[in-house]
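During the second half of the funding period, the structural biology subgroup turned its attention to how the target accommodates small molecules. The most pressing case was iron/sulfur cluster, which had performed well in the primary screen but for which no bound structure existed. We therefore specified the complex as follows and requested a full 3D prediction, including the ligand pose.
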Amino acid sequence: MSFAAQAVKESLMREIELKDEVGVEGLNLEPSIFHHLALGAEYQEQVHTLFERDHEPHEGFYLPCGFKSPHGVRFAFKWDRRSYIGIIYDGENYILTKRGKELFPIEFDKRPEYFKLSGSDGTPFKTVGGYTHGDIAGSVLNVAYSNECALKDKGLDCLFCNANATAARYAKKEGVGWKNPRLIDEALKSAREMDGVTHFVLTGGFIPERREVDYYLDVADAIADITGVKDFNGTAVIGAPLDLEIIDKYAESPFDTISINLEVWDPHYFEVINPGKSQQCGGRDHWIKALDYAAKKFGKGKVRTSFVTGIEPKPFTLEGVEYLASIGVISLTGGWNVGLGSALEGHRTPEPAWHWDMHNKVKDILKKHDYKYLDYFNVSAGATTVVSDLLAADEGLFPVQRTLSEKTAIAL
Ligand code: SF4
């Protein structure tokens, strides 16, 4: 590697580490600085289709979704006025700051073109799903068919989850509700054609009667009808079915990948943190059996689980990531972002250094079991994470804006 390439890689790694820090601490700023940004016109505004990720509520005014650093690292936006990392506007550019020192100018996410459109029933597409800008592999559309979770009625919500609180705070004002398969498929078609969506995720809270499978298969059939494509690189996010043979139906459907989210690994934590998943779906051992069954049906790297890292001790989660990688399952290990309105509101997630160590250890486990950046992207919930950035950097794949054209990946 040349001296110049080494310097670029070092800067890139500093930006990825900073992304970890922003993910934990959030961003300190006064929302009035966005009067100079055309949010909802040229730049993408937040729409709360499932979770609130900001650390402060913001009814009645827009905030951005994310931004990119000089080396093309995408950061998710989280507002938190207690943070030592912030954004200022200098009259011309938005600048990322840390402890009052200016770091670099940033570029906010452009608004996708399909956000201007609505479905045949008049529902604006921007309320259908979360669109995240990607890099090398494309962008992601993550649709929550239901923005509420039926576990609430039984008092069994997962303790970290704020889906129901988010719906109560924002859904009516933002026009977010239940989506029928036709609407989802029309939005996906436009997002693929106009805004480079290459991965589709279908998720949602629990619905009464656990009738997910019929709904998911309806969506998949409608996608094939509307878009004309059977291979839409879709991930179905489901709760572990009591009858594991239901997974066969997903494996035979056009969904390429499947996700069954454990959230924590240790059996005692599982019972306490996920009371609904524990009591309604056969318990933690059954969830692991479901992941194993799915890996045999879908194949290595086509199944994922998600962990909310930082709730349980690190060695527990890492034991789960290692075991699951050995049976063909990729773990997403996004750091625990303490959710406004969740039962754990007011708690703290571990410090950035804790999460940075976790991200690197997870990346090493995935590499040891021969999973690649693209495997990770194809089961991801959004377009980029710290772990996917680390995998891409290790594989020599990373777009470097301003030094090369926006879509060019360079070998570092
Ligand atoms: S199953 Fe748990 S994580 Fe999923 S929406 Fe319901 S409460 Fe939230």
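Two results from this model are relevant to the next phase. The pocket of iron/sulfur cluster is lined by residues 149, 151, 157-158, 161, 163, 205-206, 276 (CB under 6 Å). The chain has a mean pLDDT of 92.
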